[in-house]
Amino acid sequence: xxxxxxxxxxxxxxxxxxxxxxxxxxxxxxxxxxxxxxxxxxxxxxxxxxxxxxxxxxxxxxxxxxxxxxxxxxxxxxxxxxxxxxxxxxxxxxxxxxxxxxxxxxxxxxxxxxxxxxxxxxxxxxxxxxxxxxxxxxxxxxxxxxxxxxxxxxxxxxxxxxxxxxxxxxxxxxxxxxxxxxxxxxxxxxxxxxxxxxxxxxxxxxxxxxxxxxxxxxxxxxxxxxxxxxxxxx
Length: 234
What we know:
- The chain has a 6-stranded mixed β-sheet, with helices on both faces. It has a 4-stranded antiparallel β-sheet with strand order 2-1-4-5, covered by helices on one side.
- The longest helix is centred in the C-terminal third of the chain and has 16 residues, at 167-182.
- The chain is an alpha/beta fold.
- It is 39% helix and 26% strand.
- The protein has helices at 40-48, 70-75, 93-100, 107-120, 122-126, 137-149, 167-182, 194-200, 218-222, 225-232; strands at residues 2-11, 14-24, 29-33, 55-60, 63-64, 78-81, 155-159, 186-190, 203-208, 211-217.
- It folds into 2 domains: 1-77 and 157-234, Rossmann fold; 87-153, no CATH class.
- The two termini are 34 Å apart.
């Protein structure tokens, strides 16, 4: 489904991503874990076309994403839930969701998608006319996810969905991620909460200073002493 081969990304003289290769197969939850500054967000931004790769291959269902405009990547069935939510704070919840559906040509499809989002996130329906900037952090995360779902994605790129949330809300957000997966959405998850991320994932990659240090079955990594010591605090 999604394949990255020998990806290199530079920010000026800084070599941020150094030869990363990874795959996300249809129906998987794949986690990308690592410390702050390891390059996790840069990888997602490069997949989405927000950052230009120096060299390497990024393909999605055989399409070369390096030569595809970011707005066209959405049409292919890929949506990005960014770090920090980035909702449109001066727009209502409903207006934010409409922004997520801008690629849809069919009014009936928009109505169906909106109904699906409201079923998944009842609080968004309750707050449909409320300004997004007045929502709590957890509600904004739900809105950012719902906005991405309005485009009918086959794969979601999720960047630090638990950031800044209370433990109770973290559990709720990850429950939602599992529910989306059960509905057939493939997920590439960037997350600092390694324990929770690995517990719901099929496979995972460990990123250290721009390079893949480890990869494999998520449960096996969860039990690996090196991962436990570096990322789980045990």
